Amino acid sequence: MSEQRKRLLETEQLTKHFDIGRGQVVHAVDNMTLHVDEREIVGLVGESGSGKSTFGKTILGLHDKTSGQVKLRGETTPQKYSPADFQRYARSMQMIFQDPYSSLNPRMTVGEIIGEGLRLHSDLKPSDVRERTGEWLRKVGLHPDHMSRYPHEFSGGQRQRIGVARALIMEPEFVVCDEPISALDVSVQAQVVNLLYELKDSMGLTLLFIAHDLSMVRYVSDRMAVMYLGSLVEVGPANEVFFNPKHPYTEVLVGSNPEPDPKSERERASTAISGEIPSPVNVPPGCRFADRCPKVMDNCRTETPQLIELREVEKREVACHLYD
Fold first, then answer.
1. Is the dihedral of CA 302, 304, 309, 315 positive or negative?
2. Which of 28, 84, 31 is nearest to 61 (CA)?
3. Considering the entire predicted model, what is its pTM?
4. Could you state, in chain order, the average pLDDT of each consecutive group of 10 residues for the chain (324 residues)?
5. Please, what is the angle between helix 126-139 and helix 156-168, to 10°?
6. Where are the domains of the chain?
7. Checking phi first, is residue 39 left (phi over 0); if not, alpha (psi -120 to 50) or beta?
8. Contact in structure between 205 and 199 (CB atoms under 8 Å)
9. What's 7-92+172-323's CATH class?
10. Number of C-alpha atoms within 13 angstroms, CB side, residue 298?
């Protein structure tokens, strides 16, 4: 990553809890401190239920912050967004949602879906909005004539392209991609990822790319952040984290990633993670991974490890007592 890049977005101790009544709280995101530089793609990985999507939505104000801060170019965003705040930040930050089948309004035409942001957050004339919408349909590999059609007339991959156009027509600086390929066939996944990569280069986009597939995240990302039960456990250059993981959770997560070659996949030793992820309502003391960790020590069950920078490895941060 170039040293010349400026800090675009950062979170400081960002926390999001959901009150579910009877004194119980879901610890979806706890004290997340992460930064994303200009023109950088940061991949965020972790098991289902680790809080990845909640983290992305809290950054954008779709969830109110419980505590902590989000800064865009050094300016702290509101704790709770008002309609005026959404109006203000919509041009700077956007989201590509996970499910292309449920994230598009079936009662709106494709033209209305893609152009809605411009109609709400710009002073463009209707004819100009329509022209821009047609341009973006071309950019994502569809035809301007598709503006009058409805979402059900398109395949999953085409619908996700529509979702990409809807987010990027605003020309945002920062985009949260919330598992944008998980609901798609493998062949279509590559098409959508390549499209995002091309648009990132041509528009200078900065992305937080949330996904399950570590191989895909390694391919598209400059840096990789690993999340477990609401907290970061490791951050570093994508290739370094993938090929030389430091946290025990990252090790087993990478080890459980399927090999693309079927023969290699059959022959390799199983490295599945034992046990189940604890409940975010009853978060255990100490390290949250302790009960499943093959390298657990006594202090892991009582002392919460902090995310620290490793001296011997450049630009690597790990939250593990093995490195205290």
1. positive
2. 84
3. 0.91
4. 75 97 94 96 93 96 97 95 91 90 92 94 92 94 94 92 93 93 79 85 92 88 96 96 95 80 57 79 94 94 94 86 92
5. 130
6. 7-92+172-323
7. left
8. yes
9. alpha beta
10. 0
